[in-house]
Every structure is written in C-alpha cells, then in structure tokens.
Design goal:
- The protein is of the alpha/beta class.
- It has two domains: about 5-155 and about 200-295, Metallo-beta-lactamase, Chain A (4-Layer Sandwich); about 160-195, no CATH class.
- It is built from nine helices and 16 strands.
- α8 runs parallel beside α9 (about 280-285).
- The chain is globular, with a radius of gyration of 22 Å.
- Zinc ion (ZN) binds near residues 62, 64, 142 and 212.
Length: about 300
C-alpha cells in the first residue's frame, strides 16, 4: 500500500522560476488527492509525471489566489481530455459560485460531475471516508476562512498466524474477528483470544497539511502524532512582524507546532519569494525540531 506525497508548488503568493504557488499531490492507498491548486498546477502535474485524470479528490484550503487560481484550468483540461468520472471538490462555499460564474461566462460545461463539499467547520471534522482512508479538515488562523487537512489510513488489520490457528483447530469463522482484534467464542462457548492468533497491526500512517496560518496552538491537537507534517513557513524570525500582520508563520513557529504535536517529520513550504536562500528557515526550525526539511517543487516523500 503506497502513501506518497509530491510537492507541486512550494512558493507563496508570487510565483518564481524556482517555486510555483501552492499545490501538492497525494496518493494514499490508490486514492488520488490534490491539495490546493495554485496557478500552473496542471503544468506541474505534467512536469512531474502525474496523471491528471487519476485525481478524484481536490482539497482547497482557502480562496487566496495562490491556492486556487489553477483550478479552472485544471478542470477545463480534464474536460478536454474527455473525462467522464466525477471529481469531489472540498472548499470554502464561495468557490462553487466562482466556478459556476466562470462556466456561465464561457458557455462551456464539464462532461463530468463536480460534487461540492463546502468547508465551514469550526472544529476538526471528517469530510471523506471509504474502506481504506479518511480525510479530516480543521480551521486555521488566517485573514479569510482557511482549513488544514489530515489524510489518514484506516486502522490496519492484524495479520493472522495461520499455523497457530490450524494447530489449535480454531474455526475459520474466527478469522474476520481476529483481523479486527476481536476475541472469538465457538459454539461450545470456548474463547479464543485474538492476540494469540495474530500479530500487532502495522501503524496506520497519516499526513497533515497546514497552509496558510499564523502560529495557532489549536492545530497541535489536530495534527498530533502525524507521520509527516507540512506547515507553512512564509517568513523567518527577522520578518516576524510581517508574519504577524499577514497571519502567516515563521519557520520557528512551524517547528514549535511540530514539536508540541510530536510529529515524525516536519516539512516547510509556502516560502516567500523574498528569500533566495532558505538556510535560515532550516536552521531556525531545526533549533526547535531537528527532523525538518524545506521542500522544493518536485520533491517526493514516502509517508
Ligand atoms: Zn493565504
């Protein structure tokens, strides 16, 4: 089962030659998810070899242009390529009006269904669930309503110890229970304990995305113990006033969230175009949370 993240855009508001605006692609157990869709995202998908038509879920954190200006182009390309499979769009409610107005003005309509899930929550909520994964959204602190996301695998099943099962003559009817960690009683009332016939399950993995936000401690609970946390680090400490007034974070603030949430690894992005060199971001963050990296467009991570 794969759980992979590809950074499509690691920059903030102004695109540069090196950094496209915000967008990420996640493949979680063959669920293909796009997070944010800054201008040029469809080109980045091509550039990094990701099949556009595989994308089935699109999560938009907020309606600042650097997080969604690429959406109309991407949906239009999906349509031109003959897409019939639907897309589910999770975004602040006004995005529905924006898309509908664009379609109305152009006289074009998509040949596939766009299901719209409005994000309006005031606390963490599950927005998507199937057999293998779930996605949660939670509010962050920015100039307009903005949401973070956690993509999580469903708890894994316990591997069965077949030999032990046979030796003790346990009924095969017990297997589905054991896989879920539930003990089994046979017709005669004899109890078989799940832990005697299974191994501990592999840990269910999770990825958390926080962009854009000021330093905001309620995020700690939302992203707690994620294997990988992406947190925006638009600024460094020298420009802390600017971070405060625009409701963005510094690299060090991001590291405090990572450290307090006990995540496995922290990756930083949404880097302001004023910085040519991100060494200060890295060293400031590492002084608080060692396992940190500043991302670049095209980087991939196995979660
Ligand atoms: Zn923003």
């Amino acid at each position: 089962m794969s759980f992979e993240l590809t950074i499509l855009g690691s920059g903030a508001a102004l695109p540069t030659g090196k950094r496209n605006p915000a967008a990420q692609y996640v493949n979680c157990n063959e669920r293909h998810i796009l997070i944010d869709c800054g201008e040029g995202t469809q080109n980045q998908l091509r550039r990094f070899g990701i099949k556009i038509q595989k994308i089935r879920h699109i999560l938009i954190s907020h309606l600042h242009g650097d997080h969604f200006f690429g959406l109309a182009g991407l949906l239009s390309t999906m349509n031109l390529l003959g897409r019939t499979q639907g897309v589910t769009l999770y975004a602040p409610p006004l995005l529905k009006d924006i898309i509908e107005l664009q379609l109305k003005a152009s006289g074009f309509y998509y040949q596939f269904k766009v299901d719209f899930v409005p994000l309006e929550m005031t606390s963490m909520q599950k927005i998507m669930e199937d057999k293998l994964i779930e996605i949660h959204a939670f509010p962050m602190k920015h100039r307009i309503p903005t949401y973070g996301f956690v993509i999580r695998e469903k708890p894994r099943e316990r591997p069965i110890l077949g030999e032990e099962l046979r030796q003790d003559g346990v009924s095969l009817q017990a297997v589905p229970f054991f896989r879920k960690g539930i003990d089994y009683k046979d017709e005669k009332g004899k109890l078989f304990r799940a832990e005697d016939y299974t191994l501990a399950p592999k840990k269910a993995r999770s990825y958390a995305y926080c962009s854009d936000t000021a330093y905001y401690e309620p995020l700690i609970e939302c992203v707690k113990e994620s294997d990988l946390l992406y947190h925006e680090a638009t600024f460094i400490e020298r420009h802390k006033d600017r971070a405060k007034s625009t409701l963005h974070s510094t690299a060090m603030e991001a590291a405090h969230i990572a450290q307090k949430a006990g995540v496995g690894k922290l990756i930083l992005g949404h880097i302001s175009s004023r910085y040519e060199n991100t060494d200060p971001h890295l060293s400031e963050a590492k002084s608080v949370f060692e396992n940190t990296l500043v991302v670049e467009d095209g980087m991939s991570f196995e979660i």
